[in-house]
Amino acid sequence: MKPPKFDYHAPTTVDEAITLLSRYGDDAKLLAGGQSLMPLLNFRLARPAALIDLNRVEGLAGIREVDGQVRFGAMTRQRAIEFSPVVARRLPLLVEATKLVGHLPIRSRGTIGGSIAHADPAAEYPAVLAALDGEVVVRGPRGERVVKPADFFQTYLTTTLGRDEVLTEVRLPAMDGKAGWAFEEFSRRHGDFALVGIAAIVAGDGARCTMARLATAGAGPVPVRLRAAERILESQGLGDAAIEAAAARAAEIVEPDSDLHASAAYRKNLTRVLTERAVRRAVTRLGGR
Amino acid sequence: MSEPVTVRLTVNGVAHEGRCEPRKLLVDFIREDLGLTGTHVGCEHGICGACTVLINGEAARSCLMLAVQANGAEIATVEGLATGGTLHPLQEAFREHHGLQCGFCTPGMLMTALDLLRVNPQPTEAEIREGISAVLCRCTGYHGIVKAVEAAAKVLVPAKRV
Ligand SMILES: Cc1cc2nc3c(=O)[nH]c(=O)nc-3n(C[C@@H](O)[C@H](O)[C@H](O)COP(=O)(O)OP(=O)(O)OC[C@H]3O[C@@H](n4cnc5c(N)ncnc54)[C@H](O)[C@@H]3O)c2cc1C
Ligand code: FES
Ligand code: FES
Predict the structure, then answer these.
(1) What is the nearest CA distance from A36 to chain B, expressed in angstroms?
(2) What residue spans of A99-219 are helical by DSSP H?
(3) pLDDT tens digits for B87-107?
(4) Contact criterion met (CB below 8 Å) for B66 and A8
């Protein structure tokens, strides 16, 4: 099908976009890469009165390093992230996750801000944001706020973004250069949304683990930090028994739903299997890259 | 506003101008307004890849973009690949290796493969399979397409990384 009629606006500043959002109340949609919104429009599952296109807003795309963080303008394309030398150096986990987002032609348009604002529970970027405990910057008529992932994702496709707010930036702390990392996921076909995905970062030497970060995609309505599983690694190390215990704990923590793609029990099992795989692969990368 | 908008863009090096509603998809603008029906339209939700074109040198779905968003852009479609009566080496490789049967997926497959080879001029077979998984083909079983892209990679002068 084809999109329904809408008013089209292409503001050149974030403030202009915010003013337009306020004017339309609940009835406007921001358009970023369009890789999630355009299908909804084409199927007429979304029928906003107005589209506010962020693609002409100046200065909303770009990658910079500031104070140990890598900061991404919301309109930074996934493709730009995939090929960025800064991201390769500071956030190799993000590069690995990016390659799992759809396909290259999807990533040419899709943005980091759009992916996180859309909050698909199976999306990779929200899991990376949770694993790295990054933050998003949100701007509205009342100014700017910086939000942690736990205070951002509410449930399926729902965030605490106000209807007159724009996500302007995503901030991720640069990874420890000696940490190991992996993003493991299972999907039916390459490029599909994952049934379950696990982001893992570990630091340590030999069997000792000084830091573990684990987060899920697809194993519940929002990305989940698997803190109890992290603690098992941090207290018991990175040997086989500890990894297996952490993976088993991960499966206990998550509360996935059944849908037409997979049952809850299958997703729990995938959480265990993928946590184990992710941690094992992360361990092989310990000690520098 | 929902009033008609003017769209100016370049397709295969030729400047075009047209007027359309803001809701008009780029793929429909290319096919209906510009008459370039080489680009196909299948699923209209980003899955099949038939509508893939290059936008400022990068492969993207023209069904997930509004024509108005392409204002000022340089688009490359399958019509731009051959020069005169001579097929592009990638097209030649598809012909040679049975990379197409009905041809429905072919325009998107070619533009996707072209982008893949620019980003990664010497891909492994696994990388080719991953790259072309962006486009669905219901006829060939993909083997011919993989062979064609492998063969084209050998012929094409490696272009610079994107
Ligand atoms: C075939 C296909 C496969 C895909 N596979 C995957 C996958 O495996 N993993 C994955 O994670 N994604 C996948 N996606 C979706 C992903 O590519 C999108 O990029 C992403 O979900 C949305 O980003 P976008 O920039 O395209 O946003 P849009 O589609 O433009 O917007 C999505 C939503 O977010 C809102 N929004 C966008 N930007 C902002 C902002 N700055 N501030 C506030 N709100 C905003 C919009 O209003 C809209 O509601 C796939 C898409 C397709 C078509
Ligand atoms: S028609 Fe665009 S991807 Fe199928
Ligand atoms: S050749 Fe028929 S769909 Fe690919």
Answers:
(1) 9
(2) 104-107, 112-118, 124-131
(3) 999 999 999 999 999 999 999
(4) yes
Architecture of domain A180-284: 2-Layer Sandwich (3.30)
**Residue identifier of the C-alpha nearest atom 44 of ligand 1:** A117
Q: Are residues B75 and B100 in the same domain?
A: no
Nearest to B64 among A2, A6, A109 (CB): A109
Q: Which residue segment(s) compose the domain that B150 sits in? A: 89-157
Q: How far apart are CA A6 and CA B76, in angstroms?
A: 28
A189 in Cβ contact with B48 (< 8 Å): no
**Candidate CATH numbers 3.40.50.720, 3.40.50.150, 3.30.43.10, 3.30.559.10; the one for domain A7-56:** 3.30.43.10
Indicate the number of domains in chain B.
2
- Per-residue pLDDT averaged across A19-35, rounded? 97
pLDDT at A182: 98
pLDDT one-digit tens code per residue, B6-28: 999 999 999 999 999 999 999 99
CATH of the domain at B66: 3.10.20.30
Q: Flag whether pLDDT at A127 surpasses 80.
A: yes
**Pocket around ligand 1 at a 6 A CB cut-off:** A 29-37, 54, 74, 100-102, 106, 110-111, 113-115, 117-118, 120, 123-125, 161, 166-167, 191, 193; B 46-47
Domain A63-173 in this protein, CATH class: alpha beta
- Cβ of residue B148 lying under 6 Å from some atom of ligand 3: no
- In this structure, what CATH number is given to the domain that contains residue B109? 1.10.150.120
Q: Which of B27, B64, B111 to mutate to test the interface with A (most CBs of A within 10 A)?
A: B64
Shortest alpha-carbon distance between residue B57 and chain A (Å): 10
| C-alpha radius of gyration, chain B, whole number | 16
What residues contact B83, with CB distance under 8 A and at least 6 apart? Answer: none
pLDDT of residue B74: 98
Which of B52, B80, B108 lies at the terminal end of a domain, its last residue? B80
Which chain B residues are closer than 8 Å to A10 by Cβ?
Answer: 68
ipTM rounded to 2 decimals = 0.95
Regions of chain B with pLDDT less than 50? 159-162
Provide CB contacts within 8 A for B89, sequence distance 6+.
B152, B155, B156
Co-location of B58 and B32 in the same domain: yes
State in Å: Cα A34 to ligand 1 middle: 6
Q: How far apart are alpha carbons B33 and B29 in whole angstroms? A: 5
Query: B106 CA to middle of ligand 3, Å?
Result: 6
